Amino acid sequence: MTVDTAPNTGAEPTPSAPPRWRARRPLDVLVVRWVVLLACVVLAFLPTWVRLAQEASDGAITAYIFVLPLLAVVAAQGVARRRADELPIHDRQTDNIVGGIGLLVSIAIKALWLPRYADQYELAHLDVLAALAFFFGGAILMFGLRPVGRFWSVWLLLLALSPLGYRLVAIGLGGSRLAYAAVMVLLAGIAGAIAVGRTRRRGWLGFVCTTLSGFAVAALMLALWPQIDIVWLQLVPTVGAAAVTGVAFYLAARRGRFDERQPRRLAVPTAKWSPSSIVVAIVAAAVLALVPPTGPHPPWRHRWDHPGRCRRLLRPPVGFGRIDLQQFDWVRAFFGTSATLTRQTMRADEGNSAWDMRSRPRTVVVDVLSTTNRASLAVYPESTLYRLTNTRTSQPLTIDLGRGVTGALYTSVSDALLLTWTKLVFHWQRGDVFQRVTVISVDNHDLDAAFPQPMPSMASNLGTAIGTFLRGNAISIDDDPEYKDRELLTTFGTGLVRQQWALANGAPR
């Protein structure tokens, strides 16, 4: 047995030097990681941000997506100020696995899931969900799972309001601009509660103060400027109320304290420096940037000559007469308070053997949607106006209707009713009003044939969307369509367009 006989000098053991990555200034480390993460998010989804900006400039409500990061900053700074010292993270294996899964989910949403809902791109904006998944996975790679998990309430805040969920809630509240602002104010109240919620009482008080002040500001703005852009109603009451509430709570906490406040030390990042994590995030961003953007071109981006000023009713083409007229007021919650939806039922004056074997006069319905909010026509495609349960739709055919107007013709097969509807859809601008015209025929030529009825169908169509996600597009696409009424609708649509121009040029009514 050996005994250590070295003399005890009484000197303290020399502490080992900190790791190189912790020896750097915390600010430098944080700046590098944040710059890399944000640059990857912006470049990987650049078409998405450009498309959202275009929609916002055209009057869509998706501008709120640019407001959400501001609310997240307000909430996150409150969580960060309550942060306790954390032990350093040396083993980044778990971080790399979870962060990599987040990046793969983002790629899967954009490359695989998004194309399945191309016709509802602007309604659902699944690419925004993909961007959030990428940001979450990238944050774990940059900062570690444990620090990112500390901000779980902020992540739930960002995830809570998808574009589709935002519209569903706002439409349930009436669909007015005040309703859209109210939903954002409630979200701002949650951000304010997170920011000041050191205790449950402070959290509820912060929520109440933020929502009350936000509602007051939104109501005042609408009273002073009734035509104010929706972007300002989403930005000013929400971010302003949350920020003011946070400052007020901070000043209240400092009330009566005259001692000089000690400056807060910037905490050293706990996650070990990992160049491989940065490389993985950059590679994933490059892959996402190569995925082609999805979504149809907005109809208002095409330019047409317009058939004169907007009229409430369309003039029937030669050889047809109007036999019925219906109005639907519910469209105002979707397309604006001045929007209208009119259904005109028209029947041929005489039978045509090319359209019916027994030369019976054919009946069609013409649904005319008029709105001054041009962005809403792309947000709510024509299919959202009708129930799609147990319905299969064909690929559209392009039909030239003359006068520079181009229509899309497709069939919808109802397996429940054993009917096939053929639809001809086209858009045009008449003055400052944008119109979507949908001409519908049915393969049942009897006088009592059933036509699809316009009705709010976003909630009912979610079942079809879930089925498409689980089973693919096969359940909603007709791969072998029969365009039986192509000639009928082409002739009718061409005559309908010709009559509107004739009426605009002074033809007698």
What is this structure's SSE topology?
Blueprint: H1 20-23, H2 26-44, H3 46-57, H4 68-81, H5 93-113, H6 121-124, H7 126-143, H8 145-149, H9 152-160, H10 163-172, H11 177-196, H12 200-224, H13 230-254, H14 275-290, E1 320-328, H15 332-335, E2 340-348, E3 363-371, H16 375-379, E4 391-393, E5 397-400, E6 406-414, E7 419-430, E8 433-442, H17 458-471, H18 486-504
Antiparallel strand pairs: 1-2, 2-3, 3-8, 4-6, 5-6, 6-7, 7-8
Helix pairs in contact: 2-7, 2-14, 4-9, 4-11, 4-13, 5-7, 5-14, 7-14, 10-11, 11-12, 11-13, 12-13
Keyword list:
48% helix; alpha+beta; 509 residues; disordered N terminus; eight-stranded antiparallel sheet
The best one-word shape is elongated
As residue ranges, the low-confidence spans are 1-7, 10-14
The mean pLDDT is 82
Count of DSSP strands: 8
* Helix and strand sequence: HHHHHHHHHHHHHHEHEEHEEEEEHH
Radius of gyration: 30 Å
Strand content: 5-15%
Account of the 3D structure:
The protein is of the alpha+beta class. Helices cover 48% and strands 13% of the residues. It has 18 helices and 8 strands. Strands 1, 2, 3, 4, 5, 6, 7 and 8 form an 8-stranded antiparallel sheet that branches. α10 (163-172) packs across α11 and α12 packs antiparallel against α13 (230-254). It is elongated, with a radius of gyration of 30 Å. Residues 1-7 and 10-14 have low confidence and may be disordered.
